[in-house]
Design brief:
Radius of gyration: 21 Å
Largest sheet: 5 strands, mixed
Shape: globular
Distance between the termini: 38 Å
Order of helices and strands: EEEHEHEHEEEHHHHEHEH
Strand order of the largest sheet: 3-2-1-4-5
Number of strands: 10
Structural class: alpha/beta
CATH class of the largest domain: Alpha Beta
CATH architecture of the largest domain: 2-Layer Sandwich
CATH topology of the largest domain: Nucleotidyltransferase, domain 5
Number of helices: 9
Number of domains: 2
Bound molecules: 5'-O-[(R)-(carboxyoxy)(hydroxy)phosphoryl]adenosine
Length: about 350
């Protein structure tokens, strides 16, 4: 079968505990299949060995479904994009090896994608031919996940500069670690979000970091939260149970305040008013509501991702691959994944 004039990219994402494959045609989403791994639930966190095994099991059916749902034949695919890192090495190796096999079998090039860059470019996935709602350049992206809290100046699809980032924990880690000391299961972020909806965000004051540049710090907040619980539990052993809504709402408000403080400053310093948000923590309902208010107040042109694009997904890998393919940035079969990767 000959290739059409359309550019069809398949993306493969296996960086952590979601096996995902997606098809993008000329920048438009055709399919995005995600198999989440339930096996980790009983361990309170992702177990790397189990994640790799589950990817091995899931990858073929997930890719098969993505191709079927897109309504294409595999021979029509122009290139295959895979997550090179950052992530769990064993998990990344499954995606990398599968990609090499498919690339050789179909005689099409491979594209290496930085997972973080993928999160940023999720805003460029078009819903259909008429979708023109993509952010202009340059814009600022607040990338907040379990491993990162960064403010990125996005100059073009493939040119990005980190202008602020956490010096210790990420925002997602702050949610997860504080949730853990409250006795909540992993990942704690979504549970804190739910509890916060009926709590008082001003009930408890936690410490905020004082850092002079655009960088973040969340380790002090974690300690402040821990000490507060320790002190209150001495007075009332049922303190957490009785106050879990207020604790969640106050913690969430503090995290949002910290994130917004630097984002507002970055916008003022750069003069950029096109703002996007990305990464797992961008699913937080309180943060999304506050961002909309802040955008109205500051006349930002704000882009909030669809919930399905906040967590790990292959659509963001495919769209990044699409832009790399247009720039002829393909890779050879000696490509290897990296557990640690930065945006630059
Ligand atoms: O981007 P992501 O899916 O993957 C990694 O960074 O590995 O982000 C996961 C993080 C976790 O820390 C999780 O608790 C957090 O995103 N998260 C949330 C919410 N949903 C996911 N945090 C706060 N509120 C949420 N609704």
């Amino acid at each position: 079968m000959t290739k059409s004039n359309n550019t069809i990219i398949i993306g493969i994402e296996t960086s952590c505990d979601d096996t995902s494959a997606a098809v993008i045609e000329n920048g438009i989403i055709r399919s995005n299949i995600i198999a989440s791994q339930k096996v980790h639930e009983e361990y309170g966190g992702v177990v790397p060995e189990l994640a790799s095994r589950a990817h091995q099991k899931n990858i073929v059916p997930v890719v098969d479904q993505a191709i079927k749902k897109a309504g294409i034949k595999k021979e029509q695919i122009n290139a295959i994009a895979y997550t090179r890192g950052p992530g769990l090495l064993g998990s990344l190796l499954v995606g990398a090896s599968f990609t090499k096999g498919l690339s050789l079998a179909l005689n099409i090039p491979m594209l290496e994608v930085n997972h973080l860059q993928g999160h940023v470019l999720a805003h460029f996935i078009k819903k259909n031919e008429h979708d023109t709602s993509q952010p202009a350049f340059p814009h600022l992206c607040l990338l907040i996940s379990g491993g990162n809290s960064q403010i990125i100046k996005v100059k073009s699809h493939l040119e990005m500069e980190v202008i602020g980032q956490t010096i210790d924990d990420a925002a997602g880690e702050a949610f997860d670690k504080c949730a853990k000391v409250m006795g909540l299961p992993y990942p704690g972020g979504p549970l804190i979000d739910k509890l916060a909806q009926t709590g008082n965000p001003n009930a408890i004051k936690f410490n905020k970091p004082r850092i002079s540049n655009l960088n973040y710090s969340f380790s002090g907040l974690k300690t402040s939260f821990l000490y507060h619980l320790r002190d209150m539990l001495k007075i009332d052993s049922q303190y957490i149970e009785k106050n879990k809504e207020d604790l969640s709402a106050s913690l969430q408000k503090t995290i949002i305040d910290i994130l917004f403080g630097k984002l507002v400053r970055a916008s003022k310093e750069t003069g950029i008013k096109v703002i996007t948000v990305a990464g797992g923590v961008s699913a937080n309902s309180g943060l999304r509501a506050e961002l909309k208010k802040e955008a109205e107040k500051r006349q930002w042109n704000l882009f909030i991702p669809e919930l399905s694009y906040t967590t790990d997904n292959a659509a963001m890998i495919a769209i990044t691959g699409f832009y790399k393919f247009l720039e002829k940035q393909t890779s050879g079969h000696n490509s290897v994944p990296f557990a640690r990767m930065m945006i630059e």
